[in-house]
Amino acid sequence: MAACRDGMAATTYATVPLELISHWGACGKARVLPQNRRPDPRMDEEMGHDVRGDPPGQRSAVDDGRLGGIAMTEQYVSGLHEVDETQHALVGGKGAHLGALSRVEGIRVPAGFCVTTLAFRRIMAEVPWIDDHLDQLSRLNPDDREAIRTLSAEIRRTIEGTALPAEVAAAITRALTQLGERAAYAVRSSATAEDLPTASFAGQQDTYLNVMGLAAILAHVSRCWASLFTERAVTYRQRNGIDHRTVHMAVVVQKMVLPQAAGVLFTADPVTSNRKVASVEAGFGLGEALVSGLVNADAYQVRGEEIIHRAIATKRLAVHALPGGGTREQAIDPERQEQPALTDAQVVRLVRLGRRVEAHFGHPQDIEWCLVDDDFQIVQSRPITTLFPVPEADDAENHVYASVGHQQMMTDAMKPLGLSVWQLTALAPMRHAGGRLFVDVTRHLASPSSRAALLDALGTYSDPLMREGLLHR
Predict the structure, then answer these.
(1) Helical ranges in 296-447 per DSSP H
(2) Buried b (16+ CB within 10 A) or exposed e, 317-350
(3) What is the pLDDT of residues 210-237, one digit of tens each?
């Protein structure tokens, strides 16, 4: 079964070297142009740039007093406040979503900029044999892990060892100067194929926390580019039918925040697919301890303005930033280990912010957040890709839908022709979502006389689990 507004469908959610490492991020790859040539005008047009041939001038920095930010610096760097969700091709999924969030009233995003995919294309053009290696990579079987590991490692080493062109390094340097060269930064990969409604690429590429100094930041930008070709990322693309040549990489560089608590917010319950229940996970310090599985997180479920479930974990470790750069694990004092990382009021306020983010993007979101001085900052937002689809209703009422596919033991998405045939020949109106068909049984359940007949039919002729789900809801 699937419920349109009170989701009932059960599902599961699948969700370094140097001393400066942590997780939380993703990266990408691309093709570039020789150093002595301006990018092809067609490339500029694809990225939304002026195609008249004049290089875009450097504009003054902008700081709105709330988010901060920098202005576009030539074609290789773009301030977060200048991009939005329509610019995946230029700044990748993470950069596009963060740029969009920086424009949403009441949502705070750490100040930063994006090293655009044009810089990545430029770097890839410095590697003459890369096309041959991508051809070899594309021909590998996704199950041939050893071959993928060997070839992808060679590509990563080459990218990390390729010197940044002077223009790219200068653009990044100018951006850092505007934001503050002495500040600490999170350097985060942002691939053009990540954070999509159908594929999140969560954790497939690299992110580095608390990076300090221009040289270290430039080195970690290269590492993010290279992480487009981690074994996991390559295998994930091949299993999802994504051509390696079509994925490009941007890098998000943001001022580091030092939170008292951090975690993840799902604006829909990833286990039950209930769109009305939000799920919050929280721990002390940086979110690395939580996402890497070092600690059990506090867990909350929130419906509306009410916490309907809470489980406070024993949190023995936290990850904190070091004054000179990098991070380390630290033991939590015994008297604090079983204290909640958030107050109930903070949990409800966080969910309220999450609903605003969800409304902006139009989809349930998987949001990474930090709490700094009782102020929530959003460091990532991506669509939840594992929710079972439910049809959209044209009214504000609750609806209950029976899944036609489950009744026929066909749980995979159907082809368009199959959908059309079913809809044309069915005795009852059918709605579709995510390649699946549903029948609205709300009226049958609302009437005592027809409810028993429907439940009996589901239990006898269809899927008994549907009947059990309705009886025990």
Answers:
(1) 344-361, 404-407, 416-425, 442-446
(2) ebbbbeeebbbeeeebeeeebeebbbeeebbbeb
(3) 999 999 999 999 999 999 998 888 888 8
Distances (CA, A) of 389 to 371, 419, 444, 466: 32, 15, 22, 16
Q: Tell me the three state secondary structure of residue 361.
A: helix
φ, ψ for residue 333, nearest 5 deg = -55, 140
Q: What residues have CB less than 8 Å from 109, skipping those under 6 apart?
A: 67, 80, 98, 101, 102, 254, 377, 378, 379
Tell me the three state secondary structure of residue 185.
strand
Tokens of 35: 């150093």
What does the pLDDT look like over 232-268, one tens digit per residue? 888 888 888 888 888 899 999 999 999 999 999 999 9
pLDDT at 53 over 60: no
Nearest alpha carbon to residue 74 among 109, 39, 101, 102: 39
CA-based R_g, the chain, Å: 24
Highest average pLDDT, of 267-276, 416-425, 463-472, comes from: 267-276
* Cα–Cα distance for residue pair 413/396, rounded to 1 Å: 27
Map tokens 């009852």 to a residue.
428
- C-alpha dist (Å) from residue 427 to 192, 317, 416, 439: 43, 59, 19, 10
Of the listed ranges 25-34, 67-76, 193-202, the one predicted with least confidence: 25-34
Q: Which residues, listed in sequence order, are joined to residue 188 by a DSSP beta bridge?
A: 207, 252
Do residues 285 and 261 lie in contact, with contact meaning Cβ atoms separated by under 8 Å?
yes
Q: CB of 356 within 8 A of CB of 376?
A: no
Mean pLDDT is lowest, of 6-15, 231-240, 446-455, for 6-15
pLDDT in the model for residue 43 = 38
The answer to whether the beta carbons of residues 9 and 399 sit under 8 Å apart is no
The pLDDT value given to residue 64: 32
Instruction: Please report the pLDDT score of residue 220 as a whole number.
Output: 96
* φ, ψ dihedrals at 382, nearest 5°: -140, 155
Question: If phi over 0 gives left and psi between -120 and 50 gives alpha, with beta otherwise, what is residue 200?
Answer: alpha
Nearest to 303 by CA among 281, 274, 278: 278
Query: Does residue 34 register a pLDDT over 80?
Result: no
Residue 415: pLDDT band (50, 70, 90) is confident
CB 3 within 8 A of CB 390: yes
CA distance 250 to 194: 11
The Cα 67–Cα 63 span in angstroms is 7
Rounded Cα gap, residues 379 and 89, in angstroms: 20
- Residue 146 burial class via C-beta count within 10 angstroms: exposed 0-12, middle 13-18, buried 19 and up: exposed
Dist CA 146 CA 220 (whole Å): 26
